[in-house]
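REQUEST FORM: STRUCTURE PREDICTION
Request ID: SP-0412
Submitted by: Lab K.M.
Chain count: 1
Length (residues): 121
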Amino acid sequence: MKRFLSHTIILASVSFLIIPLTINAQAVNTGCDPQVSVCNPIQSNTFADLMAKIADAAAKIGLPLVAVFMIYSGFLFVSARGNEEQLTKAKTTFFWTIIGALLVVGAFAISLAIKDFATKL
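STATUS: Completed
RESULT:
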């Protein structure tokens, strides 16, 4: 469990290091000069646009994590070799990966529904 937690912390740390690079790249592409004015890194002028950007960011971070944990749980199944304790660990990891995938997809769907609702106001 400690090893699983340490891998999760490392993966989250790397993700949080990549996000500012993506935001900075978007600011450069819009032609905003940070030395002259305050740039809007989100590039959203409405609430609906903000919700769409948040949903997109959550999907871009969450879905690769789900894929990594699916591969990890598959590795646990293969490496168990019939050991009941290892199989239980693999099943638990797979179960929580599916729950996480449902949460990511559900959050994406809810944010798109909020965006659609906000657009129609």
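NOTES: The first helix runs from residue 2 to 29.
Reviewed by: T.R.
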